[in-house]
Amino acid sequence: MNPKQLFQGKKGEKLFLLGNEAAVRGALEAGVSIAATYPGTPSSEIGNELSKIAKEAGLYFEFSINEKVALEVAAAAAASGLRSFTFMKHVGLNVASDSLMSAVYTGVRAGMVILVADEPSMFSSQNEQDTRHYNRLANLPLLEPSNPHEIKEYMKEAYRISEKFGIPVLVRTTTRTSHMRGIVELDDIPKIEKKGFFEKNPPKFVPVPSTARVMHKKLVEKIDEIKQLCNDSTLNQTHNLDEMEQSKFGIISSGSAFNYVMDVVESDELPVPVLKLAFTYPFPEKTVLEFIKDLDRVVMVEEVDPIMEREVLALIGNQNISLKVHGKLDGTLPLIYEFNTDLVRNSFKKVLPNYKENNKISAEQKSLSTDFKLPKRPPTLCSGCPHRAAYYAIKKAMENLEIDEQDMIFPTDIGCYTLGIESPYNAGDYLLSMGSGIGASCGFSKATDQNIVCFIGDSTFFHAGIPPLINAVHNKHKFVLTVLDNRTTAMTGGQPHPGLPVDGMGEAAPEISIEKIASATGADMVETINPLNLKQSIPLFEQAIKEQGVSVIISKYPCMLIKSRTKPKNLLLIVDQEKCDECGNCINQLSCPSIYQKDDGTIKIDNFQCRACTVCLQMCPQNAIRGEVIK
Amino acid sequence: MILKRDKENDSYNIYISGVGGQGIIKFSIILGEAAINSGYNVVMSEIHGMAQRGGVVFTELKIGNSNSSIIPEGESDLLISFEPLEALRVMNKANKNTVFVVNTSPIMPFNIVNSEYPYPDVKMIVDEIKSNSNTLFTLNAEKIAEESGNILSMNMVMLGAAAAIKEFPIKKEDLINAMNENLPLKTLEINKKAFERGYNSVKSSSSQ
Fold first, then answer.
1. Domain of A557?
2. pLDDT of amino acid A359
């Protein structure tokens, strides 16, 4: 599909869309004027697609410096009467949460939707938090789609709710809905409003104690009204309704978990009713009461935390109803990780006596297994990645200064360079969140006498690294900050950030200098290096480690995934087998995917993968690697 | 349209595995769009982000009626592996009637030197699949791609190979149309050549 189709596609057309692409189309069909985000898997493609089409579609889109700013951009736009959209991964909402809490108090004039992508099983995340807790914390209405078409449709419903009640609405996806591809039928795109007008109204928009007290009262009243709408909502639907009369057993589910439930129910022809909840906060109590009124037992199938399960338990307690509730709390389903069809089927077997699987299918489809012991294949830094060179240089500097591994702490941060925890780099000792490497270094610097070298990427530095750097200098901490500046937000697919001369719409933009920011803090040493030049980088790291205060090394070289797109490599690296004594240093210390050892012991470079960064050539003790210029 | 199979609502499940950078997602999108253009319903699951950096990548495609995009254990109809070791890793997604299409050129994990287990001999991998499955097709897709003009066309070699499977539900023309829609013009000829060669490679071989 041509990305322009997302915008140009006409009503009735069917496209094969990723959940995240469907969210973009949903925003367009809802007439969104302003959108802002900070990229994060599994929500990143929403921003990537918007960035490609925003100009043509006539809306404003930005990659904001972090999620909090993105949410503030969207909130102000909605307060000015323009429909706005912000989206992020689950942990991004932690960053945005301070303003989120107030944005729900002040409310909005035009619709505002926050899409948050959760990550059950953590494919690319540091935790598995369930965003739905925020709906309860903030009093924020919640919709949970199960597939790409629903993502698009629920986006539009979310704007209707948001506008009707003057409150932001959250759409929660998970990896398996955001990264699910399915058929999406398009609808019309309305004309987009370019400018709104902010009508001043401090009692509405400025929460100070006297006004906030009024706002909170109004908010809980709003939620009470929305509860009515939620109980009448057609988004919440009973499937297998015919079975309702006979069955004493029912299933309640939402989001991607609902898909597994229906696959099991349909494939094993289970005669049980299923309540699909999609508008799940405020909790549709009446809908649930109606569903459970003739049931003896219900099983709750939801990812990640037992949130609806607790709602149902509270509801039956309050109503004095006798009903057995199975779910995560009684061990019918696991408390952690994402579900799948097999897991859901096995949980039903636990609670449904005489469970009948479709035997013909299952006998024939008994899954295969192998006794082979397989080597693992963890993700790794790419061939030619400048981070690898920086890690190597620091290790060399430590060797030259005779610093033991145990006397060096490597606080790290969030990005490709988190892969530095792998051997042989072993350069990731402590990590909490975006920007935490610098803040934690402040703590380690006072709490220990160990050496500290911390890492942060360029985009992460802008996102959350500047306040802790100022903190470090002002409070006289001692450590080396290494900014691994690869000129992009690499891990999430190469989005721009404030350090680049281009913005989210593809327009030229002022480039903010990391070096100038670091110098402005008054750090004792600020140097920019080319990490691929070991002769320069190793002595500089030595000097930085010896420094008594905060030193900042900006290790600046573009990500190879981007560089290789624009500039073909000009060198072929070859191992001279005469000179090579097969010491294995290149393999063991660099662990580059392009260098390998054959069964006969000889060392080779795979020139298809090799990006000719030349770090191996520089570090080879025998000078056995040479570069041949490609003509 | 629903595929006519043993059971009315069953989908035709394709599990695709390999290594980050082999063009698996593009392969899967072309396959999915071709299935839609042939009138089928399709759902598909992809993995993005950290998992991609040279690590294991897999997509799951269900053609026909299905709610979730995840293939249950043992329920793949077709398992396409872009890398031999990665076929073994996902054996639990296959049953003895699953058709295997496996590229035999290996990619070593970057940490293989320090790995607890060595990379098994490719012949042993092939024998292991053969002893479990009724139908296996192998091809050196990397070599075929190089011969077609660009090693990056390897994913289209695999697409051609899949298209040659007797039970494969999508017609060759529909796949080629989807290639036209999804591949850049300047590499289209090489990719089509790669597709044809992959197709012929499986057509001319009986399964092993």
1. 386-565
2. 59
